[in-house]
Amino acid sequence: MLNLIALPLGAYQTNTYIVHAKGAKSCAIIDPGYDAKVILSKVAALGLTVDAVLLTHGHFDHVGAVEDIVKATESKLWMSEADWSQFPNPVTSYFYPLANCDFTEVNFCEDGEVIYAGGLRFVTLVTPGHTQGSVCYQCENALFTGDTLFAGSCGRTDLPGGDGKLLQFSLERLAELEGDFIIFPGHGESTTLAEEKKYNPYLR
């Protein structure tokens, strides 16, 4: 059974998720955008260690605490190669700061990739559009959508790497998923896939 804590952090109130199975001694952290100390203090208060950091995409407001957390916990970092390898020019370096970091190991997730962390099984869905390398992670009945899908809306495409046509394709893919899921987005409140299919204009 999945246990989850959401921490909205930073100027953009980015949702960082601490996710673990009931009874597990470790966890996964999804999109640690800000305040490594706050995140790690919460993990410690839960009596957990960190197996992996999972990124839905490489924008600065989703990755700001990654370097400190990975170094402090020696956890594995997972993200798309497309966002990791953004060419480091003055524009993309601001939006994709991890391109300039020196990590000893980065694990690149592909579509259908299964990641085990925190006693749970995460399945990667490649959903480009908000960025070239945006992904979602499905775990049990939860779907972590980053900035691809929000309650009542979807991600913007006017930043470097954005592509409106690709985003529409990705949203159609999510709409075609069988069954209902609880949507945990990168910003804002959680929702359900059924609710978004019914009311979200970008998913109809």
Give your account of this protein's structure.
By secondary structure, the chain is of the alpha/beta class. It has one domain (2-203): 4-Layer Sandwich (Metallo-beta-lactamase, Chain A), CATH 3.60.15.10. Helices cover 25% and strands 31% of the residues. It is built from seven helices and 14 strands. The strands form three sheets. The chain has a six-stranded mixed beta sheet. Strands 7-8-9-10-13-14 form a six-stranded mixed beta sheet. A hairpin with a 4-residue loop joins β1 (2-9) and β2 (14-21). The longest helix is centred in the last third of the chain and has 12 residues, at 164-175. The radius of gyration is 16 Å and the shape is globular. It starts with a strand and ends in a 5-residue tail after the last helix. The relative contact order is 0.15. The model has no long low-confidence stretch (mean pLDDT 94).
Task: Summarize the topology.
Elements: E1 2-9, E2 14-21, E3 26-30, H1 36-45, E4 49-54, H2 60-63, H3 66-73, E5 76-79, H4 81-84, H5 90-95, E6 107-108, E7 114-117, E8 120-126, E9 135-139, E10 142-146, E11 149-150, E12 153-154, H6 164-175, E13 182-185, E14 191-192, H7 193-199
Feature tags:
single chain; 204 residues; 7 helices; 14 strands; 31% strand; 6-stranded mixed β-sheet; alpha/beta
The CATH class designation is Alpha Beta
| Overall domain count | 1
Radius of gyration of CA atoms, rounded to a whole number = 16 Å
- Total number of helices: 7
Element order, helices and strands? EEEHEHHEHHEEEEEEEHEEH
Classification by helices and strands: alpha/beta
Beginning-to-end CA distance, first to last residue: 31 Å
Low-confidence stretches: none
Q: What is the H level of CATH, i.e. the homologous superfamily?
A: Ribonuclease Z/Hydroxyacylglutathione hydrolase-like
The CATH architecture term is 4-Layer Sandwich
Strand adjacency order, main sheet: 1-2-3-4-5-6
Instruction: Count all strands and give the number.
Output: 14
Shape by Cα distribution: globular
CATH topology label? Metallo-beta-lactamase, Chain A
Main β-sheet description? 6 strands, mixed
What is the overall pLDDT average?
A: 94
Helical content (DSSP H or I, runs of 4+):
25-40%
Q: Beta-sheet strand percentage?
A: 25-35%
